[in-house]
Amino acid sequence: MEQLQSILQRLDKLESQEAIRALVTAYAIACDEHDIPRLSDLFSVEAVFCSPNGAMVSSGRDAIRDMFNTILKTRGPGFHWTHDVHAHIDPENPDRASGLVYGHAETTPHGVVSMAAFKYKDEYLREEGVWRFSRREISFFYYMPVTKYAEGLNQADRVYIDGEWHKADFPETLDSWVRFAGGDIS
Q1: pLDDT truncated to tens, each residue of the chain (186 aa)?
Q2: Burial of 158 by CB count in 10 Å (0-12 exposed, 13-18 middle, 19+ buried)?
Q3: Cα gap 162→169, rounded to integer Å
């Protein structure tokens, strides 16, 4: 009986990790297709979406829907790729998980062809058998017009918004990066 329980728990964990990968993919597709109803349904009712620079902050599914509705009105075609998707199921509560997702995007804010590299720090919640985002924080390695790529990638200010360069969210702010830059490789 104990062995069967262990198998069922491991199977649930594997199925949950795959469902979270599908959730992450559904998010990218909904953004690219400007499918606001689908996009908002990917978030739990009390979800939070935020960014370290404060440009995108919303609490609650309805506010997140409204935020994306406003943002996507400024965008033409876009294409998102999600790469590394790491999901960790909470061993104390198998209906909760955390994750880290890396990705790239080609976007057209206000008609300007741009590219971005980013990561999401996620928290997930399984509600009535469906995995949703309960918190999603986007951080940018860079976000800039393609015409600025060669100029902008090799500087700390790699986020170009409204004609001005801004500090990137990472990696320079990471503890490991700071330690390494200071010579601490232990």
Answers
A1: 789 888 899 999 999 999 999 999 999 999 999 999 999 999 999 999 999 988 889 999 999 999 999 999 998 899 999 999 999 999 999 999 999 999 999 999 999 999 999 999 999 999 999 999 999 999 999 999 999 999 899 999 999 988 899 999 999 999 998 998 888 887
A2: buried
A3: 17
E-assigned strand segments in the chain: 43-50, 58-59, 79-89, 96-107, 114-127, 130-145, 159-161, 164-166
- Domain definitions of the chain by residue range: 2-146
* CA proximity to 47, closest of 23, 17, 29: 23
Cα 131 to its chain centre, rounded Å, is: 15
pTM of the full predicted structure? 0.92
DSSP string, 116-144: EEEEEEEEEEEETTEEEEEEEEEEEEEEE
Question: d(Cα 131, Cα 15) in Å, to the nearest integer?
Answer: 11
CATH topology for 2-146 is Nuclear Transport Factor 2; Chain: A, (3.10.450)
